[in-house]
Design a protein that fits this description.
- The chain is an alpha/beta fold.
- 39% of the residues lie in helices and 14% in strands.
- A 6-stranded parallel beta sheet has the order 3-2-1-4-5-6, with helices on both faces. Strands 11-10-9-12-13-14 form a 6-stranded parallel beta sheet, sandwiched between helices. Strands 7-8 form a two-stranded parallel ribbon.
- It is elongated and about 75 Å long.
């Protein structure tokens, strides 16, 4: 059990979390990178990572990484690291389907002495209460006797080239004290930033889920303040800049809260809380407020358009940016779609432009046709919804050039500075 440092690692799921992990381990030891998406594997074998988290040069450095979609290849491993998504369903309840499916794959090839480490975000207790029973059933082995588990929550920040796998402290844990030490040493071997060995798997699970819950609530507070200041006729960014002169003021900004972490993880925690008889109030209040920001942004733009005399069914609106955050191609749980659907419900024709997005993916996943080119003097309203560096580099004047006379520019991200846009949050 994790004794010689050359055990074969299998990474299950090669998304924005699993791929950097597989690549980093693959630089120094044998790694099996497993994913059920054959197209994804073909792209990686060709040196292309559509998530843009790993450069072609880094892929080449992972000389001991073998990519596969064949579950039979997993039999060669002794350490399994599960990095599949953990989304919510349409009712905002945790959807463990990908996690349990991955556990079945692993359970069918699990042998005595093997270790299974989960990185997917879950509620406290999910690893041992939901995943371990699947491993036991599929393998016929006994937990903490024949095989062992660990939990080391992912902390990848998509699109962030500064805070990456090797530069972020890694929380680790194990199902026994000995396994906890071994799992910690495993991650410490590839992460110069260091590790933090948690007291238990449940502690590590809880630590992860509150990281994003805390951020969600902080943004919800700023979003509510932005709504209040707007009604008072006060510039929110100016207020935040002034308040930020105090050393302990937290530099959060208003905006849309989507993605597969901040907009999802709080629901995992509240689900577990309700399962043990406690109904969360503050957490869910923050979620409701953040989930309503798309409607608020749309209503503010529509009011501004009407005040400016832009009326009639022939008015077009341009949304710049569709992904859930800047400098990232990920569309999962993007809340820009809330603005899109609200404006179309108002009767406007809405175009979306985002150079980071795969147009086919946007059409397939969101039902939105992304514009590939923009025409001058076309739009009555323009929203900078996502602050991709190339969109910000255009500048306010360039974006205005796509508008008709008197067009309204809504700088949702306050990227252009005061006075350069008609509306800001």
């Amino acid at each position: 059990m994790l004794t010689n440092g050359q055990e074969i690692i299998a990474v299950i799921g090669l998304g924005y979390v699993g791929l950097p992990l597989a690549v980093e381990f693959g630089k120094s030891r044998p790694v099996i990178g497993f994913d059920i998406n054959a197209e994804r594997l073909a792209e990686l074998n060709a040196g292309k990572d559509r998530s843009r988290e790993v450069d072609p040069e880094e892929l080449e450095q992972a000389v001991q990484l073998k990519l596969t979609s064949d579950p039979e290849d997993l039999k060669a491993a002794q350490i399994y690291i599960v990095t599949v998504p953990t989304p919510i369903d349409q009712h905002r309840r945790p959807d463990l389907t990908p996690l349990l499916r991955a556990s079945k794959f692993v359970g069918r090839v699990l042998c005595k002495g093997d270790v299974v480490i989960y990185e997917s975000t879950v509620y406290p207790g999910a690893t041992e209460e939901d995943c371990v029973p699947v491993l036991e059933k599929e393998s016929g082995l006994v937990y903490n006797q024949d095989f062992f588990c660990g939990y080391s929550p992912e902390r990848i920040n998509p699109g962030d080239r500064q805070h990456r796998l090797t530069t972020i402290t890694k929380v680790t844990s194990g199902s026994t004290p000995e396994v906890a030490v071994a799992v910690d040493a495993l991650y410490a071997s590839i992460i110069p930033a260091g590790t933090h060995k948690a007291d238990s798997i449940r502690v590590a699970e809880a630590a992860k889920v509150i990281e994003n819950t805390q951020r969600d609530l902080n943004i919800a507070l700023i979003n509510e303040l932005a709504i209040i200041f707007n009604k008072l006729g006060i510039d929110t960014e100016a207020v935040l800049s002034a308040a930020g002169s105090k050393w302990n003021f937290l530099p959060f900004r208003p905006g849309l809260v989507g993605g597969h972490c901040i907009g999802v993880d709080p629901y995992y925690l509240t689900h577990k809380a309700e399962a043990v008889g406690y109904h969360p109030e503050v957490i869910l209040a923050g979620r409701r407020l953040n989930d309503g920001m798309g409607r608020y942004v749309s209503s503010q733009l529509v009011k501004a358009l009407l005040r400016a005399g832009h009326r009639g069914p022939d008015q077009r609106i341009l949304i710049c940016g569709l992904t859930f955050k800047e400098n990232c191609p990920d569309l999962r749980n993007t809340r820009v779609v809330d603005i899109y659907h609200e404006l179309t419900d108002y009767g406007y024709a809405v175009d979306v432009y985002d150079p980071w997005v795969d147009p086919d993916e946007a059409c397939q996943e969101l039902g939105i046709q992304v514009c590939l080119e923009l025409k001058a003097e076309t739009y009555a309203g323009i929203i900078l919804a996502v602050a991709h560096h190339d969109l910000v580099a255009m500048g306010a004047d360039k974006l205005r050039s796509f508008g008709t006379e008197g067009a309204i520019l809504f700088d949702l991200k306050s990227a252009f500075g005061r006075g350069n846009a008609d509306l800001r949050l």
